[in-house]
Specification:
The chain has an 8-stranded parallel barrel, surrounded by 9 helices. It has 10 helices and 8 strands. The chain is an alpha/beta fold. The radius of gyration is 17 Å and the shape is globular. The structure holds 1,3-dihydroxyacetonephosphate (13P). The site of 1,3-dihydroxyacetonephosphate (13P) has 16 residues, from strand 3, strand 8 and helix 9. 1,3-dihydroxyacetonephosphate binds near residues 179 and 206.
Length: about 280
């Protein structure tokens, strides 16, 4: 199947009032496990990698592997750069063939975030790729680095930002955070509702690990069209690796178990997000 843009998947999700899952990957087994789950449900999927993962999974190695896996898949796959931190990384991802990119300018002053995002939108256009950006600050951290405090997205800023930049998807901060939640998060659905009413751009929920199926459903009902899941898959791989070692499994069992662990996690979320209806 061809690689598809985030815009294509997210527009389809908007029409059907559901969300498309975006699953982070860090090695070949994670890629294969995620795509196997999507193929089993005959649903499109997003696979993504964040810039903080690149020291252990270099973009020029894993990127072409993600693109090849997408091209060899039986379903539509969007290959997305999650939380790009440098413009050069965005350029490299586009050159490799990613169909969607995010440059996270959320920590920059508002005007600078707009200017940088506009530059990314113009570059991505040359490749026919989509662009996601973030406004407000999602809490926690994407790697092992410094955790960020949550700063809710301002609905009026969201409207201005989306209109000025022309992005395809906007990541919002509504009490969500990357990594493990210490307590069950209370997401600000009222803020999400306000953003939805001021801004027509499809909205993205980061920090999916630890959010209950009921809250996911509420967020989707209120307008979330893409949900990011990372930690749950990385944890599943770590657990599978530990258990394989405990049972004296060999490398080949390990490889299979890592892929199976991601497959199970992705399958679970495909059902929660009703992604079967995206086909
Ligand atoms: P989690 O690690 O909390 O699932 O968040 C994923 C994410 O938002 C990636 O950008």
């Amino acid at each position: 199947m061809p690689i598809v843009t985030l815009k294509k998947l997210i527009d389809n999700a908007s029409e059907k009032k559901i969300a498309v899952g975006a699953f982070s990957v860090g090695n070949m087994e994670m890629i294969l496990g995620a795509i196997r789950a999507a193929e089993e449900f005959n649903t499109p999927i997003i696979i993504q990698i964040a810039e903080v993962r690149l020291p252990t999974s270099p973009l020029k190695i894993i990127g072409p592997m993600m693109v090849a896996a997408a091209k060899n898949s039986k379903v539509d796959v969007c290959v997305h750069l999650d939380h790009g931190l440098n413009y050069e990384t965005v350029e490299t991802a586009l050159e490799i063939g990613f169909s969607s990119v995010m440059l996270d300018g959320s920590l920059l002053p508002f005007e600078e975030n707009i200017e940088l995002t506009k530059k990314v939108v113009s570059k991505a256009k040359e490749y026919g790729a989509s662009v996601e950006a973030e406004l407000g600050v999602v809490g926690g951290n994407e790697g092992d680095g410094k955790a960020h405090s949550i700063k809710s997205t301002n609905p009026d800023d969201a409207k201005t930002f989306c209109e000025e930049t022309g992005i395809d998807a906007l990541a919002v901060a509504i009490g969500n955070a990357h990594g493990h939640y210490k307590v069950q998060p209370e997401l600000r659905l009222d803020v999400l509702n306000e953003i939805k009413s001021t801004c027509s751009t499809p909205l993205v929920l980061h920090g999916g690990t630890g959010i209950t199926p009921e809250i996911f459903q509420e967020c989707i009902k209120t307008g979330i069209r893409k949900v990011n899941i990372a930690t749950a898959s990385f944890d599943a791989v770590a657990k599978a690796s530990y258990e394989t070692a405990q049972s004296n499994g060999n490398y080949f069992t390990l490889s299979q178990n890592m892929a199976d662990a991601v497959y199970e996690n992705v399958k679970k979320h495909i059902k929660i997000f009703n992604m079967e209806n995206l086909k």
